């Protein structure tokens, strides 16, 4: 299925699925806000969203009513990172760009939407969808005033530490070192794409995700080459954000008692806390604590966190949107159906 694209001057690119535009004025329809992980970009969600809308059409338009889906770049990633490149060189941003700043940028986007492009998110029925860093930012967003009316959350592989915050120290140090040393520039986008496709780690990404990465996660340099939109310096700053791994857990615990929170985790030990990690190019990282330990802490009933559902995906690790976007799209459709069914009973 091809999405139809309509571009604004600087506010967002809009993609329309003609079959579901019927919900634009439906008061029951939901608006999904999607946030991405570190070193990626908002368009990472496109393959998942295409699968979501395919499932929506296949399973009937009445079961899940989606008014719109909005995906927002972290300000130092993707096209936002390109637009903000000079600003990001300032001292206050160059070495201190946190998960909280992503949450604050999202909040500012939501506040400015009525004036900028005529969308009042305070009057929408919002569902949050976040992966890794994006999941953390989504959680932190709930602590910012004024609070927007989310009715539920889908949290995919949050990059959190339910312990004392030091569980990730060794991982953090290795991620920083990897960001310093990894490839940053290629002659052109096609060369970058082919490099990604052949790398033994990134070749597991779905080809559509690889294409979006080469198109949207890279900027053209004056020499004609392409470089990563999220610079190594900015990526390092994200990894050095210690509170960004612990404060979201506090929000998660609070939110689980207020709203339905759906947790999606991968069962394969391939990224965050064990076995080798590739950052996404070539550098291997080894870390001591297994994802199973972190997942068990997230799911510990003694923590007070009770989830609306927990989806454990076999044979996949941390990079669920990158490696199995079609399957994730179907799973998101399933969860949205549960969310709407619950809302209908309220």
TrEMBL record:
What the entry lists under Gene3D superfamilies is as follows:
alpha/beta hydrolase
Q: Which InterPro entries match?
A: AB_hydrolase_1, AB_hydrolase_fold
Q: Which Pfam families match?
A: Abhydrolase_6
Q: Quote the protein name from its UniProt record.
A: AB hydrolase-1 domain-containing protein
Q: Where is the AB hydrolase-1 domain?
A: 33-322
